[in-house]
Write a structure and sequence with these properties.
Blueprint: H1 2-25, E1 29-36, E2 47-52, H2 64-76, E3 81-84, H3 101-105, E4 117-119, H4 123-137, E5 143-145, E6 149-153, E7 156-161, H5 171-178, E8 184-189, E9 204-207, E10 236-240, E11 243-247, E12 265-272
Parallel strand pairs: 1-12, 2-3, 3-4, 4-5, 7-8, 8-9, 9-11
Antiparallel strand pairs: 2-12, 6-7, 10-11
């Protein structure tokens, strides 16, 4: 009896391990969302944003070579703008290799979109050494870093909020930077926790940080989300008070180099005029 129980436990352990490795290493799933905005004139062409988050370049699960493959996948979607919601790097203790800033950023230099790439820092970026990462990002002219700043990109104005988790977010400064610019108002932030404080005239908020729990329950939700709001803003699309929040599960991993019942993902968001 004990031998049979031991064999069953071994089979279950192998099955769980295989499931976790598949969830961790599978190609990112492309999640899609359509947002209708009155800020776009009738008949205007749609504007698409590819949202990436929580890349966490580190071994064993996210070497730069894997990120280069993901960059090719993103480019093939032909977005108008690529938005990266922080945590480019990971320095987790379980990492088999921690890469240099140049190695982390080089695959991001492969990203290409007509309106470029915008990036906000995450907590791990600050812990790793943001100025070093920023110096590498500055080598690529298509990449623009936003730290409590805003930029006009085609028919959208995007405000980039610095990391809330490490206390560097300045929402009011970001709102001020967005003032006077016309178009669909969007905010890019690492943590979704600023969502309740975002003004209602900001139609779309793009975030990451939570990994959708990274290790989640099979029936939905997760035991830990790194959000003060638990599972409320931790995953997918949330609509409140006329605003829409998209929280990405991200691409890489943090703390433990494994996912379970979550998957790497790229969000492709199409903004278009109302269909009347």
């Amino acid at each position: 009896m004990f031998r049979r129980a031991g064999l069953l436990a071994l089979v279950m352990a192998i099955a769980v391990g295989a499931k976790a490795w598949n969830d961790t290493m599978r190609a990112p799933v492309v999640e899609r969302l359509v947002v209708e905005s009155d800020a776009l004139r009738s008949g205007a062409p749609p504007f698409t944003i590819a949202l990436l988050a929580d890349i966490h370049v580190a071994g064993p699960d996210m070497p730069p070579s894997r990120l280069a493959e993901i960059a090719a996948q993103v480019n093939a979607l032909q977005p108008d703008l690529i938005a990266i919601a922080g945590d480019l790097v990971s320095e987790k203790r379980t990492a088999t290799q921690v890469y240099t800033a140049a190695e982390v950023v080089a695959p991001l230099g492969l990203l290409s979109a007509p309106q470029g790439v915008v990036v906000v820092p995450g907590n791990h970026d600050h812990w790793f050494g943001w100025e070093t990462l920023a110096a590498e990002l500055a080598r690529y002219p298509q990449i623009r870093v936003l730290r409590n700043q805003a930029a006009q990109r085609g028919p959208v104005v995007i405000g980039g909020v610095d990391d809330d988790f490490t206390g560097k977010a300045d929402l009011s400064a970001t709102v001020t930077a967005m003032a006077g610019q016309s178009g669909v108002r969007i905010m890019l932030t690492h943590s979704p926790d600023i969502f309740p404080q975002v003004p209602v005239d900001v139609e779309l908020v793009l975030a990451g940080h939570t990994h959708c729990g990274q290790i989640a329950w099979p029936w939905g939700g997760a035991p830990a989300t790194m959000s003060e709001y638990g599972n409320l803003y931790a995953c997918g699309v949330t609509r409140q008070h006329g605003k829409t929040l998209v929280t990405s599960a991200g691409l890489g991993t943090s703390l433990l180099p494994v996912r379970m019942f979550t998957h790497p993902e790229i969000w492709l968001i199409e903004i278009r005029p109302p269909q009347r």
